[in-house]
Design goal:
Layout: E1 2-15, H1 25-36, H2 40-61, E2 70-88, E3 91-100, E4 106-113, H3 122-136, E5 141-147, H4 151-158, E6 165-169, E7 172-178, H5 183-192
Parallel strand pairs: 4-5
Antiparallel strand pairs: 1-2, 2-3, 3-4, 5-7, 6-7
């Protein structure tokens, strides 16, 4: 796992002016969501908006002229942002990041783990590393939003040892928690990293 501070992100997708090319949007947006740790709820909203926008451009923007391409640009502000990247044999399998709200001690946190690598403690490890890095950089509170059915991510927050508050609104769960490493967090952290006595080897349990 490697950590890095980043300043800006800009990517683009070029589509032909035909409706069949709209089918390329979900996979492109999905790859952006993985690389930039975009929350699932935001990814869903981007998909809806871009599909409608690109459809309107293709169908109504230039009339019968289909010679020009449709270019979709993705730009993400990178003010005071830190990200951890997890790779397996050169393959990107998970990204976690926090993005501080300008002029505050609060940051939005998000992480994305490839499907086949889930349930192995990677999300929890990312949260631990992000919280440690953020606390050292003067951030006091994490906030996050996810779909209500994303129980895996909600469990990561709930089991972290931090004092997590949750608000449900329209199928979106907003969480908020201080990231000070107090006694409750240290106890949860120690329990996750304690030796598994049932194992044949003295290894740390997945967390």
């Amino acid at each position: 796992m490697t950590g890095r501070e980043t300043d800006q992100a800009e990517e683009r997708l070029t589509l032909e002016s035909r409706r069949s090319d709209i089918a390329k949007l979900p996979s492109w947006i999905g790859s952006l969501a993985l690389r930039h740790a975009i929350p699932e709820s935001v990814e869903f909203a981007i998909n809806l908006c871009l599909e409608e926008a690109v459809s309107n451009v293709i169908l109504h923007g230039y009339g019968a002229d289909t010679s020009g391409p449709v270019i979709v640009r993705f730009m993400m502000p990178r003010h005071d942002l830190f990200a951890f990247v997890v790779e397996d044999g050169g393959r990107l399998v998970a990204v976690g990041r926090y993005d501080r709200s300008p002029g505050t001690s609060e940051a939005e946190v998000a992480f994305v783990v490839a499907d086949e690598y889930q349930h192995h403690g990677i999300g929890t490890a990312l949260l631990e590393q992000l919280a440690d890095a953020a606390w050292r950089n003067g951030i006091k509170t994490f906030v996050a939003s996810t779909l209500a059915e994303n129980r895996d991510m909600l469990h990561v927050f709930a089991d972290s040892g931090f004092h997590v508050s949750r608000v449900l609104d329209g199928g979106i769960v907003s969480v908020r928690f201080p990231i000070e490493p107090d006694d409750a967090y240290r106890a949860a952290y120690a329990a996750r990293h304690a030796p598994d006595l049932g194992s044949r080897h003295d290894e740390a349990r997945p967390c």
